[in-house]
Write the structure tokens for this entry.
Amino acid sequence: MDHSHMDHSHMDHGDMGHGDMPMPMCSMNMLFTWDTTNLCIVFRQWHVRGTTSLVFSLLAIIAISAGYEALREGIRRYEASIAAKQDASPSEPNTESTTLLGVGRSSQSEAIGRRAQVVKAVLYGVQNFYAFMIMLVFMTYNGFVMVSVAIGAGLGYYFFGSHTKAVKETACH
């Protein structure tokens, strides 16, 4: 059947019949709660709409929190490898000029140190950004989310924190 002759330009299809149904808004709690109704985690797009999305969100939060500890361990290993490279680089004999600039350090060791400082600065920025994003996740004040952050941190420490003390110097990063 040919419908090409039918003109639908006068019909309004703007809201496709959804005009009466309001879209669920993100709830923003500033008090501790276990309620997950319209829970949004950091972004409007990360909207928990049911049990399945809640479970996947909590698993993602556990993985994200554990990933922070993996990042910290990676940074520690990078710093250790740089220190080993600097120690392995040949030393120059102590002269008046090398004593003022750095006791017996070679130009190769100094070059390694300068490159490493740039990389470490970038990694430090990434680590702080990561920590503050986890803080924002925690600040949903939802008990399930908060417990997931703690579980992820614990698992991350278990799997990646073998070279660190369990006590942290600062609370946020």
